[in-house]
């Protein structure tokens, strides 16, 4: 039943989050407690407290863990609004990688693991990180190149290896760690981050500055984890990564859609007030067409997100759909932000507006969770295999 | 209620049209009764008879006139399938401009006008044309430049002027004619095409060859129409044009989506069988990525169509939405067809496959019903006027 | 010595060809003796006679064979001007494949072969074709897949195989044929086209209509050639193909540059005269920017051609340079022609101007002589091999 | 005489600069004395001393002021090499705006003004700034909106106004100031920067970090300048701005060409060493094609620069040519840098390589010295005015 309307409860949620972001979070954007590796702890706690008071903390989590149990379509609505401020996802506890980690724990963890890790995550008391990516010659775009090992050691395991691009590592309370187990293969483990044998060697300098804890280089040197710290079953690491994969990709799309809409709104506002060559710059087609293209790109990004979210809500992994959505959305939104910079002229590359910041923060989006090239390669394989062009859009 | 599923009756219709096109129409594509100005009358009658027997003639018309009274969403499903063959829209009587003319007559005509013109159109007995566009300095992209006049003359009117790009003119049974009435402004009139004072001076040579009757230059030289031949009210011509506008634009999108999907399918098939440099050409990323991009462009085209169709089904003119959809779809599908040509290599520009034909037929799509530039200009005006970015995707 | 000026003799030649095309050839464009497979023989003879009288026939040929012995840079100047009319290259005898074939014969043929074939070619008395491409599973983009065989037979050879996309086949007087010789490998042979054992099975339907003789499917079924009909040495076929390759690619670029400039000029003229929405359409930035982009694309195309021509004039095969130029030029000119169509609006896709014809004729340019994808692949190999980025631009 | 070779003295200079950058400057890139507003003074002095010792300081200046008096073509060669390190232009004293300011002073200043300002600039003892751009509603892309005033005051002038985007303001020793003189119009003035009445209110936060002194907001509040501080004649400010304009635009292109080549080289190196999915990533066409496109974009950028430099060397303002070159080069190089980021995957957006820094530094290039849109608008006006398409490429 082709339908693009929002059910009343989602329309209400959308309005509520929009209002919350506008009145509670955007005024915090000038807060100086932010650095090259994201908002500092004290700022984060202030933001979370605001979301908690507004009843908007962790809306994606199940009711059992304090959330609203939003469907993927519901997340599409709420996360776009959250993303309208770069601080919104932090406030509402829906930023990466925590949001995806919570999703994975809900799907795979034991009750005891959930109580230990999911509850404090959902309640905003700790942050987490997801330790998969490795420097060359380890696992990057190609996860099969995994080098980190988990060696049986008494009743538990000893983990050794080097990871990087570990978002949120600095300051995280827990880690999900992908390591290779002899004879079993890739396996996920849970660990507290302050355990002996884990070192955050450094935070990487990055163009983006919106992720709490930045992106760390993390060394595992004889980290001991117990038998109860295996997440799910031995050798199922890649399968679980796939459970996490499509939703995690898609929530990136949702949040960045909000950010791109923000950049566009700033550009529109400028085009409606700045004069050049005898008229408002927005009345120059060179600018007006850019704004029209922005509107179209925001539209197709939203449609692609909604379609993929709906597909996930029907069940299934939606790997092909989420690859498609990731490429469509990340490239469309990048065009929006790049055009918004250009419309602003000189100011576009300065701190006079938020657009330069969104521009720098968003460049990684076409790379993280699989560069466009890897997704196109994967889509091509589906197509050549003869999988039918889908009926469902 | 965000939903991308088809209700059972549409799913059934989709399957039925797909089957009809595959088994009844595609085999007719090699029929020689086609020329530079579209399928000839005898071929058209054969095709229509097939659709009639299959119960698929004029599905967009109301039940009163023999159709299924499809919603816009329903048309999106049926017309995409029809478009999969360049002959499909002719067979099912859903090609331009007749489909849009029927839509307009249902909305505006008197019962007597409907009985005289809508019924034989819906039953496939006659074709029609829509006489609006004029050569310079008359009405092109800017309809306000209308030069054709309708002068009061006894109880009726005398029409004088020159039109061109009149699709379907040669062989049409009736015409809707836009002319300027003194003191009233742009007004639509109905006339039989064999009336004295109408001359189809010539058929224009065009890249496309899929429109029955081609595109004519039509001269009105003292054409007499009666008082009862005014369509709707005097001076309302541009308003009625808007009633026709969004749906007509959008059904173009639907049909060409089918055609582009056809081109893509042919390219995929080739990529799965032709070898070069030691592997299937589809296994070269240069080709595989093109197919992936095709799939993504088909996807966003379909989503944009569905969204605009749904908006029309909620009522309203959807002018902004249909401008947006027209640009998104026409540009996305053009990329699909251009890539499909490229994937086929040398064969792409030959008659060895249907792709070169679709390529030539489709180039006008970025121009007809408003070039992309006019739509971008119109969208920019909406944006600068401060009309809110819509919630509904 | 970085220098973009023309020496006086080239400036004079440029002016002379420009004048010839404007006054002698463009008036012939409306001549009806043209069909889907190019200008007919009688038209071709008329055109050649005009060039002969103007002293502009075969200017690329050596003085010994009646030409001017133009350098590659000189060809760049003359062929661009010739290409300004789609009939210009035919008139001046510089069209494909004859121009490239003459180049190859000058480089490789024996004196006797030159007397027999090069002289009548250069004098415009016969046409030729180059028989390399084969249908699947034979040699397409990947020439190593060559299937046609030349079997020793008495003092000569017997040739068997099937070729297609053989430009100019219908009506050609001679053929250069690539075939595989046992133990030696790919070898080129010369044959008259009316020999027993050669059949032009059909002319392929193509989007382009500017090549005399169209593009044929040619069957060799026991064709006998003599010992003296080997072009150069046995097994050197691919090496000779490379001698022909870069210059042939580049002269395509030169001619199409002229054609694209023509399309642009027509669009500019239209933009300076057609009104819409209260001003000349060229004053709308949406149109003006397209014209500016055209000018920039024509500029980079010309620069890339000149650079590659200069490189060839220094000696060497210039394979990397000509791959680069082919991609840059074919893609830039395609954008020019596509924009010119769009600027013209509805007329762009009709026979009202020459632009639709140039559009259809030029689509193959991104494919013939190696699709862009094959050239990018080849460039990437050069780059990865660590060949230095060149100093010489 | 179409020629792309370098004369021996330029070939020697190219080799010498390349060597200097590789061995003297690149090792300094890790020097910590750099911040958000460019290299600090101490670092700058170290760099300049190296260039001075190498005989490579201010090579564009006339011999009278210690330089080599390079032609524009000579600058194209030397500045590209300088730009290969982001510190190179600072070291060789060829960065913006100083290089352009020196050019202007050589062309317009009196001997006394030259002695006072040009000499210490050319010798690297002071820096300068060019105060033209103003915040809304003042002069931005449209210089005619100039608001800053110069009021006659005794024998001299009193200057009042607000400027921003004043590159190099913080730490500059002198300023060229554009102000409106009653009855005369826009006029340029010279002033020391430590004069009363000049305040650098703040340095703007910008994506780029390579300009010494950053980009300042500069207030003139009753600045007094003498009669001898007028640069050239009253009311000629815009004419002189045009003298500076084309060369200044073009030297930006030259320096950024070097920077983009650096980014490409880093990407190539990565593609030749990193493995994924069973082969080197450069062997994936998705990566290899990006490198091929980079090579082509670098090529057309270099050609467009050389052509415009040669045009300037023939005399004249080359306004149309430099608009064209600015758009071609800034857009081509941006594509190069964006692709280089993408090829590097996650590392592309980090400080692990220099590419992210070049990416951030270069975004302003499509805006500074006229956004692409303003240049396209200007080119369109030339075209519509009927100015002939040039013969000289």
UniProtKB/TrEMBL annotation, chains A, B, C, D:
Acyl-CoA dehydrogenase/oxidase C-terminal domain mapped to chain residues: 235-383
Cofactor dependence: FAD
Keywords: FAD, Flavoprotein, Oxidoreductase
EC code: 1.3.8.3
Chain ranges of the Acyl-CoA dehydrogenase/oxidase N-terminal domain: 8-124
SUPFAM superfamilies tied to this protein: Acyl-CoA dehydrogenase C-terminal domain-like (SSF47203), Acyl-CoA dehydrogenase NM domain-like (SSF56645)
Molecular function terms from GO: (R)-benzylsuccinyl-CoA dehydrogenase activity
Domain of life of the native organism: Bacteria
Enzyme class: oxidoreductase
InterPro entries: Acyl-CoA_dehydrogenase, Acyl-CoA_DH_CS, Acyl-CoA_Oxase/DH_mid-dom, Acyl-CoA_Oxase/DH_mid-dom_sf, AcylCo_DH-like_C, AcylCo_DH/oxidase_C, AcylCoA_DH/ox_N, AcylCoA_DH/ox_N_sf
Acyl-CoA oxidase/dehydrogenase middle domain segment(s): 129-204
Subunit and interaction comment: Homodimer.
Similarity section: Belongs to the acyl-CoA dehydrogenase family.
PANTHER family (alphabetical): ACYL-COA DEHYDROGENASE FAMILY MEMBER 11 (PTHR48083:SF13), MEDIUM-CHAIN SPECIFIC ACYL-COA DEHYDROGENASE, MITOCHONDRIAL-RELATED (PTHR48083)
Protein name: (R)-benzylsuccinyl-CoA dehydrogenase
Gene this chain is encoded by: bbsG_2
């Amino acid at each position: 039943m082709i339908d693009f309307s929002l059910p009343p409860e989602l329309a209400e949620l959308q309005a509520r989050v929009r209002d919350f972001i506008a009145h509670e979070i955007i005024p915090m954007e000038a807060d100086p407690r932010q650095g090259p590796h994201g908002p500092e702890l004290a700022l984060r706690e202030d933001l979370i407290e605001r979301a908690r008071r507004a009843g908007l903390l962790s809306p994606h989590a199940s009711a059992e863990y304090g959330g609203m149990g939003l469907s993927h379509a519901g997340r599409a609505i709420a996360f776009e609004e959250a993303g309208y401020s770069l601080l919104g996802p932090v406030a509402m506890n829906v930023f990466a990688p925590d949001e995806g980690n919570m999703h994975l724990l809900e799907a795979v963890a034991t009750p005891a693991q959930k109580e230990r890790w999911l509850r404090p995550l959902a309640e905003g008391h700790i942050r987490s990180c997801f330790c998969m990516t490795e420097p060359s010659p380890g696992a990057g775009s190609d996860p099969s190149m995994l080098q980190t090992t988990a060696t049986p050691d008494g009743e538990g395991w000893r983990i050794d290896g080097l990871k990087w691009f570990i978002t949120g590592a600095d300051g995280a309370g827990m880690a999900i760690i992908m390591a290779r187990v002899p004879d079993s293969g890739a396996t996920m483990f849970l660990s507290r981050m302050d355990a002996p044998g884990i070192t955050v060697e450094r935070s990487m300098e990055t163009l983006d500055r919106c992720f709490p804890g930045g992106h760390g280089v993390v060394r595992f040197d004889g980290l001991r984890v117990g038998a109860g710290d295996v997440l799910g079953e031995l050798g199922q690491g890649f399968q679980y990564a796939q459970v996490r994969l499509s939703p995690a990709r898609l929530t990136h799309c949702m949040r960045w859609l909000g950010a791109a809409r923000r950049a566009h709104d700033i550009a529109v506002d400028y085009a409606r007030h700045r004069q050049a060559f005898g008229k408002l710059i927005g009345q120059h087609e060179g600018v007006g067409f850019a704004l029209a293209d922005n509107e179209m790109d925001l539209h197709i990004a939203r449609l692609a997100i909604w379609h993929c979210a709906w597909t996930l809500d029907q069940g299934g992994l939606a790997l092909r759909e989420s690859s498609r959505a990731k490429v469509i959305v990340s490239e469309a939104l990048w065009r929006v932000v790049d055009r918004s910079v250009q419309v602003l002229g000189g100011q576009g590359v300065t701190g006079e507006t938020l657009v330069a910041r969104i521009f720098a923060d968003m460049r990684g989006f076409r790379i993280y969770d699989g560069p466009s090239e890897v997704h196109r390669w994967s889509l091509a394989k589906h197509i050549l295999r003869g999988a039918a062009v889908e009926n469902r859009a």
